[in-house]
Give the backbone structure.
Amino acid sequence: MGALRLEDLPYYTYDDYKNWEGNDWEIIYGQAYCMSPSPMIKHQRISNNIGWQLKNLFDICKKCQVLIPVDWKISQDTVVQPDNSLICHKPENEAYITKAPRIIFEILSKSTAKKDKELKYKLYEQEGVSYYIIVDPTEEIAKVYRLQDGKYIKVCDASDEIVEFSVKECDMKAEFDFSKIW
């Protein structure tokens, strides 16, 4: 018996995905990733605090919307659900977004850490997400990355720092206080 080849693995598309029970899945390049078990209480609390702060900061911009997990259909074989995101466009439909968010926060869990740090990092960089923040609830630290010339550069490790996000669609800069998410 030979080695397992990528072409031997199941390949899924959005048509498969939308018929699956529950919304605890993502597909990236045709491969299915289970999002179970559901996030822990600390994860949900941090996500809620991120969402509230983003909403308060960007509420003055009529183009912006803060989203909690919602499908981002990147292609027929790639659909992800960022924990928190900021979009600066009107979605084309109510089922999912198709344009890259400006800001994405992913909160690490044991089951998603590797995917968030590696696969989604590369995916979000490739898709042009302006800021990618990887939040580690165990260490109470967030790694903040900004897209520059098509590549992420690390802005800082934040735990109680204030980090400025510049969003061109709003022509504004917002100061996000990481001490308020824990």
User: Anything to note?
Assistant: The domain at 36-180 is CATH 3.90.1570.10 (tt1808, chain A). The chain has a mean pLDDT of 94.
